């Protein structure tokens, strides 16, 4: 009985392979590396029935994750987030089979916990003492959290404009935190120089191969939650793109294991109109994106002007007959409010963008009325207090409440 | 096959019984009412094996919950929160079997979601159109959330000093929100007058019988997560007391069903030194508490100067050979920081108080080294940004990171 069927690291661009049991970052050709498993052996050990008996965390899929020894698993119980039907909103929008997969209900309140749990566990297994990364906030909070639990030092650099609460998360967990007067690409450059100078473990998006392995579990869970009959459309807010790359990777792995059929969900990359490099590349039929100048959106997590894995996102979208679509800040704030008042879901701005996107794609006919549509909400709205403007009447103890 | 084995409402003080299928609030004697089930019939239908096959939410225990019809279940996937071993902290504190049950990983980021999910579902089943309640913040956020999902109007009154983020939660979910220049008892009096004047459904703590039914599921889950061999000590931050009353009720029900043995965990009510009416009553051997004057603590959720269910809390503590203990704000902030840096858990101040309490009870010998000890963390630290003070260096894009 193997805990993991980790086999090798592989470059998706030049197909070079690497030993998975030494620290690895990018391929010599500059591409991110992907983790490969012995799926045939895994499918002999793991069954759908066995899965049902396991605890509701992403570690239920440990055979398909890169951590070799259970002692190295650093977990806070992350994963198996709820799949929530949106009956009232679905009826209003003529999508009766509309769902949210709610990544607000996970440690750190953001899907970034998945990548951090698996990434930090594997870093611990590989002997890492200090890791460093740039972040738009949530990833930093998550990696600081799991690094604290693992006893690994974390050096985090985030833009000054990132959500304030994520500073607190990094700080209380004991990370060495720095702000930068710039965007995530500026933070990335600072981290890159620090890694080179000090020999830290580079944990930037896709610059180590294991974060994606944590995030792909969203794909496994969706397949399992739909009883292995995958939905028709999945909409994903896309910044660095690891979530959508991961879901596509997971679905392909399940296909190879024979657990799902030929049909895949159409994957939709949702961006903000103020930062839409993937949408532009998709519209122009290009294999990768151009740096988006002066990028700007209230959905801070998808303010990524140029993603290292852009070509992998575009591949996932094209290979599944998906599409890419940009949403304005005004539209996504309206969608955020509508999800809360109609369904009781207080989602992050990034997650809200997927509802606005679904609405537009339904109106255009790209989504059909009978299709099963999943909005991926990547985090809780609680981390973005500034998106809600509240003026509340103040009463004195002797006052009475008005009727309406 | 019954969805619920709801049998009747019963007064724990004068033992009067009430029809459960009409709206009910307090007993004519002034006591809260408790929900009773046909446990014998329930234990014939529900088995421990069957439970394993059910989804990881509190609705897995639906036979022991008051909602009669599945169509009335208002859910966001709440429940089955993680039970997290604290190995490093446990070793430091000589409690090798120390755990956190983490209610930060639940919709709305607080255990209040449990009471709201079940309470709102049952209110919907009973035909409620408008509910009203006072809150220290988190309960209001949770009830506003589930009321929005149910299509029920919510009128919420909270102290001006309650956590700001909970205002946003109420507002974005469309509740009618009011602040009061006072404490929760002042908010309660305003709501009481509003209920009388306008005929709203009174949803104050213990003034409707179903909130406790949601919260008791923490007790079911703990029993199930410990494979029906319950832990030795459970520490619970105690304000209104519904959580600890609910856990005690759940454990007694499991005993009556023969699912757990005679031994119960010792229940510890943890309060703040600035608001410790239950601790005082426990020390003085009294059956109920006195209103605590000028109450004050940073752990806002347990700033409850006089709880309606105080006698039930004291009963739960006494009947399980438990105790009550007060923690200073300084101690709980230290504990909050220690949980984060050592275990990667960013808990709310109320939850942090349980660690400080466990430490003191271990030092005094009240907790033995080999005992299995559970800290109940009632919510995520993300909702309390002000408890973390951060000063972060600001870099320019051309700057380099220092070594240490």
From TrEMBL, chains A, B:
This is Threonine synthase. Catalyzes the gamma-elimination of phosphate from L-phosphohomoserine and the beta-addition of water to produce L-threonine. It catalyses: O-phospho-L-homoserine + H2O = L-threonine + phosphate. Gene3D superfamilies: 3.40.50.1100. Its EC number is 4.2.3.1. NCBIfam families: PRK08197.1, thrC. It comes from Ktedonobacter racemifer DSM 44963. Residues 74-379 form the Tryptophan synthase beta chain-like PALP domain.
């Amino acid at each position: 009985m193997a805990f993991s069927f980790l086999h090798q690291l592989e470059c998706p661009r030049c197909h070079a392979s690497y030993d998975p049991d030494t620290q690895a970052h990018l391929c010599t050709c500059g591409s991110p590396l992907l983790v490969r498993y012995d799926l045939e052996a895994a499918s002999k050990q793991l069954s759908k029935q066995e899965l049902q008996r396991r605890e509701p965390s992403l570690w239920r899929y440990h055979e398909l994750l890169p951590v070799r020894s259970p002692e190295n698993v650093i977990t806070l119980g992350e994963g198996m987030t709820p799949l929530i039907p949106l009956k009232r909103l679905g009826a209003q929008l003529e999508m009766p089979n509309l769902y949210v997969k709610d990544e607000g209900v996970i440690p750190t309140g953001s899907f970034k916990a998945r990548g951090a749990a698996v990434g930090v566990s594997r870093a611990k297994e590989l002997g890492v003492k200090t890791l460093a990364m740039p972040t738009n906030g949530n990833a930093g909070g998550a990696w600081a959290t799991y690094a604290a639990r693992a006893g690994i030092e974390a050096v985090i650099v985030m833009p000054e404009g990132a959500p304030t609460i994520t500073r607190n998360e990094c700080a209380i967990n004991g990370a060495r935190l720095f702000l930068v007067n710039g965007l995530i690409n500026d933070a990335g450059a600072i981290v890159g120089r620090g890694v080179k100078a000090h020999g830290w473990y580079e944990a930037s998006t896709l610059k180590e191969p294991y974060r994606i392995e944590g995030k792909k579990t969203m794909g496994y869970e969706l397949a399992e939650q739909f009883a292995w009959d995958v939905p028709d459309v999945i909409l994903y807010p896309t910044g660095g793109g690891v979530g959508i790359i991961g879901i596509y990777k997971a679905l392909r792995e399940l296909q190879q294991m024979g657990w799902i059929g030929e049909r895949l969900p159409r994957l939709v990359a949702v961006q903000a109109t103020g930062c839409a490099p993937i949408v532009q590349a998709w519209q122009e039929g290009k294999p990768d994106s151009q740096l988006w100048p002066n990028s700007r959106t209230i959905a801070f997590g998808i303010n990524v002007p140029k993603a290292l894995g852009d070509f992998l996102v575009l591949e996932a979208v094209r290979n599944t007959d998906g599409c890419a679509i940009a949403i304005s800040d005004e539209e996504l704030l309206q969608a955020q409010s509508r999800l809360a008042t109609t369904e009781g879901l207080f989602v992050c701005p990034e997650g809200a963008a997927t509802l606005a996107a679904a609405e537009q794609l339904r109106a255009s006919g790209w989504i059909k009325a009978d299709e099963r549509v999943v909005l991926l909400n990547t985090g809780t709205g609680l981390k973005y207090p500034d998106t809600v403007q509240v003026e509340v009447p103040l009463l004195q103890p002797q006052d009475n409440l008005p009727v309406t």
